[in-house]
Amino acid sequence: MNQALVTKYPVTDRTLNALEVTLRGCEELIPKEDWLQKLAKSEVTGVPLRIKLGLDPTAPDIHIGHTVVLNKMRQLQDLGHQVIFLIGDFTSLIGDPSGRNSTRPPLTPEQIKLNAETYYKQASLVLDPSKTEIRYNSEWSLPLGSMGMIQLAAKYTVARMMERNDFHDRFKAGTPISVHEFLYPLMQGYDSVALNSDLELGGTDQKFNLLMGRHLQAEYGQDQQCILTMPLLEGLDGVDKMSKSKNNYIGIAEEPNSMFAKVLSISDTLMWRWYTLLSFKSMADIEALKKEVEGGRNPKDAKVMLAKEITARFHSAAAADAAEQDFINRSKGGVPDDIPEVTLSGAPMGIGALLKAAGLAPSTTEAGRLVDGGGVRVDSSVVSDKGLKLEAGTYVVQVGKRKFAKVHLA
Fold it and tell me: Which residue ranges does the UniProt annotation give for the motif 'HIGH' region (predicted)?
């Protein structure tokens, strides 16, 4: 335990409630006793704790899987603590090797700047922007210079660095490891020194880097931060972690109708895990709802509530209500009020070519498969003939449950 925390501060009900909020849905809290004392000290002194989340802006958009740690930040923010949204503009130039079996190419400064702006704008849909400290780690990493970098590198051994799973596995497999990759966990750890953080959050795949912050804070004579790791959210399939490459994700910038419908598509089992990690409802309220479902209430009711909460967070309550009505219309075979309109020429046009031209199928081959599967409707009638040709006119074309277009064919 930190020397500064040896003196026991009184643990009140309020402190224990804050600990419960911290632990909700988390994978690991290291060390829990230190965090409890930090919370107790904050309550006695009235000084908010400094809670850090670092994100490298490696892509312009984030999905709701990324918001698991942001939700935790918001919960701690609501308890009155100071959250720090750290944009890793310097560390992005290195490239985080976490969980990778090859070197990740670094981003250009221009890419980082554009991505960072989008990241923070989207993160602000979860965090309270007026109570969020935004920092860039280039503030202290660039002034460190070559001398400072060498001094920093002297505070950790190669043997300890090679204990990290991805480095160990790559070395064993004979896969190249560049020296600059060793700098990434050092620089992330140094961020904690520069910010004098009390708690750092991250995914389970970041544990090594988070612990580096504790080590370096001790080296620099600071109180050591605690570590809170959050699980990786399973995607729509309930199997793999949410990922764009797996196409099992919900982007937080997705339009409301799609977002709502995707939440409703998850399994009844996965729904409760999403409630724990994504909802702002209290655990007591969630448990009460779960008991209602176990007692006979339709689980779809609970899923609709979750879908509306998530859609409202990233859009508005009105948009969530409209998305619910849109879903009801679609489930009844009705046509949504707001569907894209497409004007095409070339009548008579084959159904396959029309679906491709209207953006409802990626190719005529796939369009044919959709027709064979009974997934295509024209003016509410199922199309069974791949050779169908449509004359000039206006048609409402539907593919599956969610894709619609009003096609004006000339």
Answer: 57-66
